[in-house]
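Hi all, posting the design record for the shared folder.

TITLE: backbone redesign
STEP: 1 of 1
STRUCTURE INPUT:
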């Protein structure tokens, strides 16, 4: 079968005691990195490599020691950690100053953000605008399109020109939806992006998947597949967390929604009360994918139309760093942008800014 060749991650795995070429191939095909092996359950490793529990335990223990050394794992005081974040975290603008403020600075690097909302609520436009700002910083952006005809090369150029930003189309790496027909294709695309970034030494600022959930919706239908859906979602999110960490980039995932209330068949056994959902998300929708998806991302935004023509509402309903809140934005040739002051004032005065 020959020797396994590949990225820096494979060379790290080769240093683990007890891993030969056959085992290395199995781990690589399953998407394992050194850190994943170090954190994996011994029984899982034994089953995957067809080895004894003792041998699997030795492999995991060796991986832990190597991972601790390569990562330089240690503890911070709170002030040291704050300084570390200030020196290392990067921010990417949404295009709206109000929305950036709501998020605490924009989209954050080394983090996963979910952008959810109904059809034509601005999810793709928000991703496009952030990508343009990323490229203006001189960094590369990566986009995985899973729905046909949602990524238009000319749109990125238009947003940049309207904003007076520097834009180099060579800094946008795109995998189009014609190549993504299943969740397996989508997962494989992450690896393709990693290989491109590593082999070319790219400084990646944003990796976006638009839409993250569309392939999942096609494959996982009905409550009987929930366990398989959860397992597959966790596999994808874990890989993307590693990607965000390894490249110190922002990962943006758009997600479709479920309307509430839903049909009795869909809501059976679930807490799908409309008032509760609105209290949580600020809107009458919840992200498709359940807790496996919502728990896996650090930040969640809901987008929705309002009764004012061309005005959209964004609700920050999930964040460990920022309080829940909302703001309004519009979409123009500049992509996502703020409302003009007079319109914003008029909207905020109307019933305290509530559109429901």
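Okay, here is what came back for every position:
SEQUENCE:
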């Amino acid at each position: 079968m020959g020797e396994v060749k590949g990225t820096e991650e494979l060379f790290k795995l080769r240093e683990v005691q007890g891993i030969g070429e056959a085992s290395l191939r199995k781990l690589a095909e399953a998407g394992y990195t050194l850190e994943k092996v170090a954190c994996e359950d011994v029984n899982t490793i034994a089953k995957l490599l067809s080895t004894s529990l003792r041998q699997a335990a030795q492999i995991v223990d060796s991986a832990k020691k190597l991972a601790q050394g390569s990562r330089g794992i240690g503890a911070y005081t709170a002030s040291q950690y704050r300084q570390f974040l200030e020196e290392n975290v990067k921010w990417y603008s949404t295009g709206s100053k109000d929305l950036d403020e709501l998020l605490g600075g924009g989209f954050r690097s080394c983090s996963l953000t979910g952008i959810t909302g109904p059809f034509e609520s601005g999810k793709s436009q928000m991703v496009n605008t952030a990508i343009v700002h990323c490229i203006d910083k001189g960094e590369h952006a990566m986009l995985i399109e899973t729905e046909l005809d949602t990524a238009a090369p000319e749109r990125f150029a238009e947003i940049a020109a309207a904003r007076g930003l520097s834009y180099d189309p060579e800094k946008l790496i795109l995998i189009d939806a014609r190549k993504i027909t299943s969740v397996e294709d989508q997962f494989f695309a992450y690896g393709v992006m990693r290989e491109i970034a590593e082999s070319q030494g790219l400084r990646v600022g944003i990796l976006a998947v638009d839409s993250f959930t569309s392939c999942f919706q096609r494959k996982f239908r009905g409550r009987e597949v929930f366990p398989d859906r959860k397992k597959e979602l966790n596999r994808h999110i874990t890989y993307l967390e590693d990607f965000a960490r390894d490249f110190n980039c922002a990962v943006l995932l758009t997600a479709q929604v479920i309307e509430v209330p839903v049909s009795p068949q869909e809501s059976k056994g679930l807490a799908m009360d409309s008032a509760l959902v609105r209290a949580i998300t600020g809107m009458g929708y919840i992200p498709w994918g359940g807790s496996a998806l919502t728990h896996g991302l650090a930040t969640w935004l809901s987008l929705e139309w309002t009764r004012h023509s061309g005005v959209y509402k964004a609700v920050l309903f999930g964040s460990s760093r920022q309080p829940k809140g909302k703001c309004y934005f519009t979409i123009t040739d500049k992509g996502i942008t703020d409302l003009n002051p007079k319109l914003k004032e008029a909207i905020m005065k109307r019933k305290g800014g509530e559109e429901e």
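COMMENT: Residues 114 and 144 are 15 Å apart (CA to CA).
Let me know if anyone wants the other runs.
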